Amino acid sequence: MTETESIAYDVVVIGGGPVGENVADRTRAAGLTTALVESELLGGECSYWACMPSKALLRPVIAQADARRLPGLAQAVQGPLDAPAVLARRNYFAADWKDDGQARWLEGTGAVLYRGQGRLAGPRTVTVTGPDGTVTTLTARHAVAVSTGTRAQLPDLPGLAEVKPWTSREATSAQAVPGRLIVVGGGVVATEMATAWQALGSRVTMLVRGKGLLNRMEPFAGELVAEALTEAGVDVRTGTSVESVGRENGTVVAVTSAGDRIEGDEILFATGRVPHTDDIGLETVGLEPGSWLDVDDSLRVTGTDWLYGVGDVNRRALLTHQGKYQARVAGAAIAARATGGTVAEEPWGAHAATADHHAVPQVVFTDPEAAAVGLSLAEAEQAGHRVRAVDVEFSSVAGAGLYGDGYKGRARMVVDLEDEILRGVTFVGPGVGELIHSATVAVAGHVPLSRLWHVVPSYPTLSEVWLRLLEAYRDN
What we know:
Blueprint (H helix, E strand, L loop, with lengths): L2 E12 L3 H12 L4 E5 L5 H6 L1 H17 L15 H11 L6 H10 L2 E4 L1 E4 L4 E5 L5 E12 L3 E3 L7 H4 L4 H6 L6 E5 L3 H12 L3 E6 L10 H14 L2 E4 L3 E7 L2 E6 L4 E4 L1 E4 L3 E3 L31 E3 L10 H19 L16 H4 L2 E4 L4 E6 L2 H6 L4 E7 L4 H6 L6 E7 L4 E9 L6 H9 L4 H4 L12 H11 L1
Parallel strand pairs: 1-2, 1-6, 2-3, 6-16, 8-9, 8-14, 9-10
Antiparallel strand pairs: 4-5, 5-6, 7-15, 11-12, 12-13, 17-18, 18-21, 19-20, 20-21
Protein name: NAD(P)/FAD-dependent oxidoreductase
Pfam families: Pyr_redox_2, Pyr_redox_dim
Keywords: FAD, Flavoprotein, NAD, Nucleotide-binding
């Protein structure tokens, strides 16, 4: 192991996914010298094993499902998907798991890339162990930002090691369609991957420990998605936990709590995420290795004036778009503090990630799509708000019928009865992912219902569901 001299920067970022890249971009734009450290591919989980490859797998599935709802087009798309072509397109969107383009982009920002394992080595100090074993020490004049994200959590089950289970990484990067796939879990990764691989030709069985799917959304979201998955051929088993797994003559066997033996060619565990902070030297600055980072609204780690935890590592919202939002806030806060400027930490200020508390949007790219922002009805009530849920079926919206025959979906807005603003909105139905930004604006902006009456939806589009929701609130 060879050590080099220490190199000083204004800011050092550990983790080069989209969050770390955005922190580096914002601090560089503010004129601060910035180093970014990445141990794998620059661009991180989202670019190669999550958002981009998963949506590339799902887009042909959803497009085919939409086409099959349209007489005159349905007859032309009755055959199976061309799985090799879908996988090849997915490979393209994952840049064939090469990060040359990302590296060129980062170079254009003026940030300096260090490839290797980054570890904290005391306050404002980071060591980077390169692929050849060379250790470089980086010191930060102003801030170190940890943006190392999360990794899949695997349960402690008998036989798991010999099975070599899929996690989200293998599920989004597999180069062949398994004949039979067991999916353990009922959240976003589980439902999206069940949707994709079933459509590509796999026989999918879902084993869900809870009562239903997508349990962090309104109950009807999981119900509608489960119904559609079942109609598509997925065997959805709720209230079912896995007791043990193993391989018998190459076949995966999962034994359930009911004593059933489920066989498959591969098994995907989509059972949660843990912070990727166990090997980054947190103990050298008095923090617990492997822990989530507790941060304030400017993303600064509690008890420090130089360490920031940005993105999934702080557990505020495990979503790429929310992490990038945090990165913009953190970058601006770091720059303001470094230059002696004013730090606006009040709610909705330039240096406060207030949306993390009030207006986090998410889209689940199943068929039907499920999209939500803000609080569910149960969450709003638990938070002490006096609220009312208003539901409408998309069958009342002309644009839904035009979108496709037999369109099935539902919308809900959660109205704060004290202020007559929206605390949350949920849409379920084909194509509703494109509606959620309007709901995010309404929730984040605390737009009063009296003003929403004057936001006229174009006819005939899915957006007319807003008018139906407002009418239902007024008339009931």
